[in-house]
């Protein structure tokens, strides 16, 4: 069973101050005593407590993270990056879930982080549900950083360049020779859709908007000249691919599909999805590092961080062929 500083000192018959100095290898303590203390600490599974240091520095060395769900692979990797950055910098990460359907639970989560006296707060949610509780963090001068979503003033954000990503998706289809395509007009991310339309205008491509996967087959029958689809994200792209194959379409011979995010599912043999890759882990990593910059007031002036996406070519996009009649 792990022991604390007081128990170590009692067993060694030394003062807690001497043991603390010895554990930090301070030369003020005789080398023989330092080695004796350190050996017993290792043997007894001594776990260092940061409480005293936290009281002195007025820092908990904990960063709070409120997120609207971790069931998606995308956010798992964002959290992975955040955790790695916190670990590197000697901080802990305390994660809480928020929901647009449970205001009482959101308040409890926010209050819990305040009770733990987190040094900063990172927010990943797109419904504005945490906004009413930010005042409490602001009053305590806790930095707030938004990750994967734009921040309301006066806070900062770490986001992906969705406009560029939307452009890259359509530009890729244009480079393969597609002239009329379906694009997702999802209201969750207008910048991505605007990027789609910007690239389409530049390349002279006609676009038709869709909002649901269930619209796809109807639109393909209505517009026989459509040869490609730009999905909102990879999961949607894979769902579309499944539905099209079930309806007798060949991918990419009849219809090309490009996704967004570059989730692990994209490289599975049954999909091999061409997609736009976001720097998922780096989003979380940079959010933590920006939080620490704000805590320590380093690297000023501060500003929003925008990470560029990139194209990952696989097998779901090809030059348009003659679509078989349906």
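Sequence proposed for the structure above (326 residues):
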């Amino acid at each position: 069973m792990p022991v604390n500083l007081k128990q170590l000192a009692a067993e060694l018959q030394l003062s807690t101050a001497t043991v603390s100095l010895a554990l930090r290898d301070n030369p003020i303590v005789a080398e023989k005593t330092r080695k004796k203390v350190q050996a017993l600490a290792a043997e007894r599974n001594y776990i260092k407590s940061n409480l005293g240091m936290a009281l002195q520095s007025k820092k908990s060395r904990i960063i709070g993270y409120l997120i609207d769900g971790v069931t998606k692979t995308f956010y798992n990797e964002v959290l992975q990056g955040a955790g790695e950055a916190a670990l590197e910098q000697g901080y802990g990460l305390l994660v809480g879930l928020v929901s647009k359907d449970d205001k009482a639970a959101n308040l409890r989560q926010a209050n819990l982080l305040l009770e733990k006296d987190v040094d900063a707060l990172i927010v990943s949610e797109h419904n504005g549900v945490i906004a009413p509780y930010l005042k409490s963090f602001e009053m305590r001068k806790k930095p707030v950083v938004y990750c994967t979503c734009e921040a309301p003033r006066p806070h900062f954000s770490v986001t992906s360049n969705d406009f560029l990503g939307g452009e890259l998706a359509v530009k890729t289809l244009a480079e393969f020779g597609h002239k009329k395509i379906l694009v997702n007009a999802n209201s969750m991310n207008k910048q991505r859709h605007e990027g789609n339309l910007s690239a389409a205008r530049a390349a002279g491509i006609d676009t038709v908007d869709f909002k649901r996967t269930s619209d796809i087959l109807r639109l393909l029958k209505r517009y026989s000249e459509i040869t490609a689809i730009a999905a909102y994200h990879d999961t949607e792209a894979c769902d579309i691919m499944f539905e099209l194959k079930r309806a007798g379409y060949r991918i990419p011979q009849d219809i090309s599909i490009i996704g967004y995010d570059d989730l692990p599912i994209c490289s599975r043999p049954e999909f091999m999805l061409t997609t736009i890759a976001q720097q998922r882990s780096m989003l979380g990593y940079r959010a933590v590092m920006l939080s620490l910059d704000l805590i320590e007031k380093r690297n000023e002036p501060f500003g929003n961080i925008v990470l560029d996406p990139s194209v990952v070519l696989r097998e779901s996009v090809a030059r348009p062929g003659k679509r078989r009649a349906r």
